[in-house]
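Course assignment 3, question 2. Fill in each field.
Student: A.L.
Task: Predict the tertiary structure for the chain below.
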Amino acid sequence: MNKQDLIEQIAQAAEVSKSAAERAVDALVVAVKTSLKKGDSVTLAGFGSFYVRTREARTGRNPRTGATLSIAATRVPKFRAGKALKDAIN
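Answer field:
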């Protein structure tokens, strides 16, 4: 399912126009991005949680040359599925 399929399903389920459903999806994505950028987590009961994890700095190896290089620490977004979502697909 891509974004357009999701918008179409939301429009049908909520009985709203596709443009209204697209604005809702876009607003959700922006809200999640903004919260994660601040370091907050986003929890949707019955669905799951979006949160930020810090990946430690480490050393890596260039596969082409074999030279060691330093990889800086970074923050990465993560998602943990909720129990209701896990139960729905099993």
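Instructor remarks: The chain has a mean pLDDT of 96. The first helix runs from residue 3 to 14.
Grade: pending
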